[in-house]
Amino acid sequence: MNRKRQKILKETFAGKSEGEAPRQKARGSELEHATKETEIPGTLTMMEEIVSQENAKKALKKVLQNKGAPGVDGMPVEKLPEHLKKNWSTIRHQLLTGTYTPKAVRRVEIPKPGGGKRQLGIPTSLDRFIQQAMLQVLQKYWDATFSESSFGFRPKRSAHQAVEQAQKYVGSGLQYVVDMDLEKFFDRVNHDVLMGLLAKRTKDKRVLKTIRAYLNAGIMADGLVKARDEGTPQGGPLSPLLSNVMLDVLDKELEKRGHRFVRYADDSNIYVASERAGKRVMESITSYLKRKLKLKVNAEKSAVDRPQKRKFLGFSFTYGERPKRRIAPQALSRMKKKVREITRKRKGRSLEQIAKELKQYLTGWRGYFGFCETPSILTKLDGWIRRRLRRYVWQHWKRGRKRFAELTKRGVGKDLAAQTAGSPCQAWHLSNSPALTIALPNSFFVSLGIPILAR
After folding, report:
1. 259 touches 145 (CB < 8 A)
2. What does the alpha-carbon distance between residue 8 and residue 30 come to, in Å, rounded to a whole number?
3. Which pLDDT band holds residue 113 (cuts at 50, 70, 90)?
4. Pairing mode, strands 105-111 and 219-221
5. pLDDT at residue 1 tops 60
6. What are phi and psi of 155, to 5 degrees?
7. Which residues are within 8 A (CB) of 367 and not within 5 positions of it... i.e. 6 or more apart?
8. Which value, to the nearest 10 degrees, does the dihedral of the CA atoms of residues 422, 424, 428, 429 take?
9. Could you tell me if 210 and 100 are in contact, meaning their C-beta atoms sit under 8 angstroms apart?
10. Model confidence at 114, in pLDDT bands (50, 70, 90)?
């Protein structure tokens, strides 16, 4: 972290001792007495830990790093330190007395990879900071209680680990998967059910009251605030933890029944030996979720099938005794669609601009899907991407004279250059020609910063 940010963090909470915010005396003594008797460390004094100077500094640092768009108040995250410097004492007092009221979230819709739109709720910068501070403390106490088969939104756990665990189950001979998709999970979480589960995890009523306030905070769209009585909108730091609290009930039930499963957020895969067993599990768990958690399984997107025919977190598996991780066909289609968008012919865009955009996208894509164990598909993708780029350059050169000059300048013999420049074939056909391969070798695109996927 640079010196400027260190200075901001130091000055924001400077001079504010842990007891600076006014507190009700009776409440403080009550907490001290209760803490001595409780058998669950920290559960009655969680809010004190949440608003501690050390935790607040850590939360502010995280929010500043993540940046993000402003909420309904329009305050950018860069102005948050100044706001806290002036108002932290009052905000801290409100949190300690359970009187803090969050602002509504700003609704934003983003396209889903498989079609449709996902609704995000963007909290204000201040509310992101408070949620982050709460997350840091609550996760510390609760994460160790979650299932070993849960991998989403947890420290030191990842999607790759979830896929690897699924691969082990498939390799062990479990030939069918119960692939369950919860219908609009984040939009349908029942507040009363969730609050009941949270009350079992902490006795600090101020924490519970603040979380309830966040759940009930309205959604602003088109200038109007709409009340909300269900759901935990994606977009705030606290939402993923709350989803794990809710679905931990499902995890524990599956463990109790002796099932082998993997869950990442609201994606649950249960591995069984036969199709008949899978259908029985699907029916039973669907009923359980509806009865216990008031959640609905999306019948259209859920299925009992061979693991090789389903996708999990963008991956699937090959057949055989030792199944390998492969990129799911749907993920490959989305990737190609994105590359086509970046490399399609548009006026005013140079090859350098396209290369920069491609580099950013492909670096992230390779970082995730490079986890596959079928490198041949990555080699094919490399060839296809280079061919798209050669096609773009060929179209950019436009006319025969320009094309001939560029080809000869780049080491192509005059006869081959003349033959290629005068060819009536379409650009896509010529993008795979010997002349363009010589003029625009793979090393040329590497020099532009475009990463090689098959490394």
Report:
1. no
2. 35
3. low
4. parallel
5. no
6. -60, 140
7. none
8. -90
9. yes
10. low
